[in-house]
Amino acid sequence: HPFDDAEVVAGHASCGLEILEELPRVGTIVVPVGGGGLSSGISVAVAAHGSDAAIWGVEPTGAAAMHESLRVGHAVHLPKVDTIADGLAPPMAGTLNHALLRDIARGVVMVSDAAIVRALATLLDDVDEQVEPSGAAGLAGLESGQIPITPERPVVVVISGGNAEEAANRALLKRFGADSGQV
After folding, report:
1. What are the pLDDT digits (tens) for 73-88?
2. Cβ proximity of 111 and 142 under 8 Å
3. pLDDT at 179
4. Fewer CB atoms < 10 Å away: N or C end of the chain?
5. Pairing state of beta strands 107-111 and 155-157?
6. How many CB atoms sit inside 10 A of residue 178's CB?
7. Are 35 and 92 within 8 A, CB to CB?
8. DSSP-derived secondary structure for 8-57
9. How far from 85 is each of 96, 110, 145, 151, CA to CA, in Å?
10. Which of 79, 96, 116 is nearest to 43 (CA)?
């Protein structure tokens, strides 16, 4: 399974281990959430190493299966998803991933597609990073103000995804008015 599998979660835990290796005092880790494989893997690694870093997931409002799963107490299947962040759009949360995030993460916040595009614009124009919309969701969550941070400790935003195409991103920026600062 692409995300609801113990071996997939264990593989994604390597990202959490790398974060802890580079920043042992990390206070907050923000991770985009689709089915929950990456976020649950990072959560498991952080918990296994005794870190008190707060793990926060971020989902698009139009594909918030994990947020809804955490709200109702079990993994759900959405009747429909609608988001520009197609890498975060499985219509269901993984059962294993839900259980791990429920027990370890601080929560999953939701962001609009417009917020994702604003974060995409920031990454593209201010940091010179070409990422797909799914990869910008974590920054959108941080920028939304929904995630509490400890100012004296480092914050990590995981930027994931490998389907970044500059022409497609520029089209999104134009569609949402981000190319002219209107978003």
Report:
1. 999 999 999 999 999 9
2. no
3. 67
4. N
5. unpaired
6. 22
7. yes
8. HHHHHHHHHHHHHHH-TT--EEEEE-SSSHHHHHHHHHHHHTT--PEEEE
9. 23, 12, 20, 29
10. 96
CA distance 12 to 100: 13
CB 37 within 8 A of CB 97: yes
100-103 contacts at long range (C-beta below 8 A, 24 or more positions apart)? 100/9, 100/36, 100/40, 100/43, 100/44, 101/33, 101/36, 101/39, 101/40, 101/43, 101/55, 101/57, 101/66, 101/70, 102/70, 102/73
Q: What is the tens place of the pLDDT at every residue in 138-157?
A: 999 999 999 999 889 999 99
Write the DSSP assignment of 103-154 as a string of letters.
HH-SEEEEE-HHHHHHHHHIIIIIS-----HHHHHHHHHHHTT-S---TTS-
Alpha carbon distance 30, 148 (integer Å): 11
Q: Residue 32: beta bridge partners? A: 58
Question: Which residue did the predictor score with more confidence, 178 or 123?
Answer: 123
Q: Nearest to residue 75, comparing CAs of 87, 86, 61, 65? A: 65
Determine if the pTM surpasses 0.90: yes
